[in-house]
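Deliverable D4.2, example record:
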Amino acid sequence: MLEDGVVERDLIVRDGRILAIVEPGVGQAAEEIDARGLAVMPGAVDAHAHLNEPGRADWEGWEAGTRGAALGGITTVCDMPLNSIPATLDRAAFDAKRDAAARSAHVDHALWGGLVDANAAKLKRLAGRGAVGVKAFLVPSGVAEFPHLSEAVLVPALRAAAAAGLLVAVHAEDRRVTDELGRRYRKSGRHDAAAWLASRPADAEARAISRLAIAAAEAGARVHVVHVSSAAGVREIRRARARGLRITGETCPHYLTFTSADVRRAGAALKCAPPIRGASDRDALWRAVLAGDLEIVASDHSPCPAGMKAGDDMFHAWGGVAGIQSFVPALLTEGRPRGLTLARLAWLVATAPARLLGISRRKGAIRVGVDADLIVVDPDRRWTFTAAQLQARSAVSPYVGRRFRGAVVRTVVRGRTVQQDGEIVSGPGWGALIRA
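Output generated by the structure prediction step:
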């Protein structure tokens, strides 16, 4: 899977990089991987994941999370700043997370910083450390250590990020809408899945994206809307881009796989914000992904201890879906009947995110000189995701029991096989920090 299409070639790898791309049978190597009949793709660059270490390693941690990543076809995972303690808001916190990952990660990784105020000095230091960008919330994040941006500070904070040269990833929902509806449903005694879904309408997402676009234009910031969940959200991104704004968007496999009917059935295992919506929004997101209105797909893997998903109070349960391990298989399974080609998949999960995050000099493609990050895919293998296969510490995933068509049979990170036929075969600590 080269950048210009699907071809039959051999890859020569030396010292972790692709040395040459040659006709089949040309050249020799000390070790050979026979991938005949399979597809070799660039390893996925997951632009949005929460591994929660240091501080909340019991929620997941680098070791378990990157085992799942390798099984899901991800060779570089980009960790978000908010669920670790300390949150990644300054240079010291960045270094603490870097060190935790160095001890345990099976795959390469990049780090996001946090944007919680307009402190330009802290942001410049994060940029100097190699952060791929900063994350901000327009609604409460769910953890006390990571406050959201109020309307008063939004433009100054975006301006400070722009001055530091940092991309800003934004969780976009309108707090006035979600707070009011949440209070209304809880006051009425409703705490079921249907009430949760109704309390976070697509209109809240669209309003927030519209407000973000206006603020980004005033601040001169480059913004990226994470986990877009609705047709209305896509429309607002398209409108902002038509006005010349530097705005991009992503969606996630759970929005492309499940519907609100699944949330009502599965409960908290599928709770996330913005919530998973109806089939019409799912279909609209697929059209946006295939047409390029949403540039990338990312996992937004956000696990927690099983007890935080227990009970029937959807408002109290932790919001996050464990999906890193099923990343590429879910997209293959759901996407190909809708026209997703392997070449388009490689663009969405590898090439485009690497370019967006400023790491394409090393990641996201199969070409001479870049890291030999490769996944070998059997596009037609049919298999069922069992609880015994799940790597997540919580043992909670809405994908358990699901049938897939398409499997990642080998994962190679900088020339070393990390995962083969569903088994992790390389020890923790192989993963390296990738700086923007």
